[in-house]
Amino acid sequence: MFGTINSILTKIDDLVWGVPLIVMILATGIFLTIRLKGIQVRKLILAFKYMFSNETDGEHGEISSFGALCTALSATIGTGNIVGVATAIVAGGPGALFWMIVAATVGTATKYSECLLAIKYRTVADDGHIVGGPFYYIEKGMGENWKWLAKIFAVFGVMVGLLGIGTFSQINGITSAVNNFFDANNAWTVQLFGRDYSWTVVIAGIILTIFVAFVIIGGLRRISAVAQVVVPFMAAAYIIAVILILNYKAIPGAVVEIVQSAFGMRAVAGGALGAMMLAMQKGIARGIFSNEAGIGSAPIAAAAVQTTEPVRQGLVSMLGTVIDTIIICTMTGLSIVITGSWDKGLEGVAVTTRAFQVGLPFPAKVSAFILMLCLVFFAFTTILGWDYYSERCLDYLTGNNQKVVRAYRWIYIACVFIGPYMTVSAVWTIADICNGLMAFPNLVALLALNGDVVSETRGYLERVGIVKTTVGEA
After folding, report:
1. Residue with the larger pLDDT of the pair 66 and 122
2. Which of 79, 223, 238, 444 is exposed most, by the fewest CB atoms within 10 A?
């Protein structure tokens, strides 16, 4: 019975995250890049400038631009940056990293556009807090007749947060990482729910639940405050941990290997095209899943920014894709290619663990401990970010019923608490399906409202005197 259900869900998952969705997300990014004349490259320096200089005249909003960026990064920087990259390279070869970066580059224009629209069409709730995201720019930008599409997005958003990506998979990943390091042989166990669990799993689960509850109950401002401290720290710690500078002489060779693999140049005779397509499929899919450009999650955080300029926040928010994929995922990928860990018959986190152990000048146990800490912090912040996203989706569905939202927080915390003991793979598959289905309503809206994005961008850049004519007519 359960085997049949899992088989059906897996087929649905493969269909949702198959070629059509990947092509649709990639094509939308390319289209918006062309329409905006490569704004993600031309205005990258300006975006970094805005990231560290908040507006002083913003009338509405709850958090700073930097706070919103960190909140969005807290949800996107997760175990996928460590495990997902390894999986893509093992399946598609080093060339998968090249296509991952390509997907992120065009996806940056998508992230810019959706976060711009989130500010443009956000609204102020009766209690004064700011609400916005794909559901509002679908309803207000495309019209009331499309409200059903907005609700579909919100329903999937709640399901993703509660059923897996925000709760079960992350806490399970944390406790598994802690268990593998401290008690890999399960020497100290306790029986719960008819099964034996290591005490490290139980203790780690309780501690993480307490920390999650403390942050989540405080609402967006507390989530943002924690994210602004933890996200920069964990990103910096991870980059330092990978420490490619120690292996800088091997980087040029790794880059050549990545490019050759991306275009099938290392494949045996007659297999070049197939190798290229496999690298492209795995790399693009992993890039999209990692930075969530086009999924519609980041705009929910961007909508709460203290700003009066949609374009300004769009520029700051697009840095999320740059940091998540082009920087952090590339760091992971390069370390895996340089150390040759991808073709040793290993899978998942074991691939990255070996890269750390080979590439770092520390004892293997120390390197494994560093990676474990990265996994813990990455997954912890994802729990926080997805709670906020799913809360805002529920907020929209219930007409800003805060009693329901507060009750949801406790349900969310309960799911985190039981997460370490969940073993049904269907939970993760359902969450994966919902995450993919979130993209369809959002991509429809981005294509329908691309004229708004272009006109807003042109108007802002002309108004602040950066250029006289920046992008084409809408």
Report:
1. 122
2. 444
- From CA 125, how far away is CA 345, in angstroms rounded? 54
3-state secondary structure (DSSP) of residue 191: strand
For every residue of 40-83, DSSP letters joined together read HHHTHHHHHHHHTS--SS--S-SB-HHHHHHHHHHHHSSGGGTH
- In the 8-state DSSP scheme, what is residue 305? B
Q: Which of 217, 228, 216, 290 is nearest to 65 (CA)?
A: 228
pLDDT in tens, 391-450: 899 999 998 888 898 899 999 999 888 888 776 566 667 777 777 888 899 999 999 999
Render 369-397 in DSSP notation, one character per residue.
HHHHHHHHHHHHHHHHHHHHHHHHHHHHH
Paired tokens of 230? 């933890």
For β-strands 189-192 and 130-131, DSSP reports them as unpaired
* 433-469 core/surface letters (b: 16 or more CB in 10 A; e: else): bbbbbbbbbbbbbbeebbebbbebbbebbeeeeeeee
Residue with tokens 């920069």: 232
Phi, psi of 190 (to 5 degrees): -140, 145
pLDDT in tens, 206-225: 999 998 898 888 776 777 77
Give the C-alpha distances (Å, rounded to integers) separating 189 from 179, 207, 400, 420.
11, 17, 44, 14
Average pLDDT over residues 314-326: 89
> Residue 294: which of 134, 164, 82 has the closest Cα?
134
Nearest-angstrom CA–CA distance, 215 and 229: 13
Tell me if 420 sits within 8 A of 204, measured CB to CB: yes
| Residue corresponding to tokens 């059509």 | 20
DSSP 466: S
CA atoms within 13 A on the CB side of 424: 13
Tell whether the model's pLDDT for residue 199 goes beyond 50: yes
C-alpha closest to that of 334 among 108, 91, 100, 174: 100
- 3 state DSSP class of 464: coil
Amino acid identity, position 94 = P
177-191, 195-209, 230-244, 428-442: least confident range: 230-244
> What is the per-residue burial (b if ≥16 Cβ within 10 Å, else e) of 388-413?
bbbbbbbbbbeebeeeebeebbeebb
> Distance between CA 263 and CA 340 in Å, rounded?
19
